[in-house]
Amino acid sequence: MAHAATHDHHDDHHGAPTNFFTRWCMSTNHKDIGTLYLIFSLAAFFVGGSFAMVIRAELFKPGMQLVQPYFFNEMTTMHALVMIFGAIMPAFVGLGNWMIPLMIGAPDMALPRMNNLSFWILPFAFALLLSTLFMPGGSPAGGWTMYPPLSLQTGSLAYAVFAIHLMGISSIMGAINIIATILNMRAPGMDLLKMPVFVWSWLITAFLLIAVMPVLAGAVTMLLTDKYFGTSFFNAAGGGDPVLYQHIFWFFGHPEVYIMILPAFGIISEIVPTFARKPIFGYKAMVFAIAAIAFLSFIVWAHHMFAVGLPLGAEIFFMYATMLISVPTGIKVFNWVSTMWGGSMTFETPMLFAIAFIILFTIGGFSGLMLALVPADFQYHDTYFVVAHFHYVLVTGAAFAIMAATYYWLPKWTGHMYSETWGKVHFWSSVISVNVLFFPQHFLGLAGMPRRIPDYNVAFANFNMISSIGGFWFGASQLIFLGVIIHAVWFSKKKATDRVWEGAKGLEWTVPSPAPFHTFELPPVIRDEELAHGHVED
Amino acid sequence: MTQQAGKFDQEARRKGVRRTAWAVGAVAVAIFLYSILSMLKLS
Ligand code: HEM
Ligand SMILES: [Cu+2]
Question: Which pLDDT belongs to residue A511?
Answer without folding.
Answer: 94
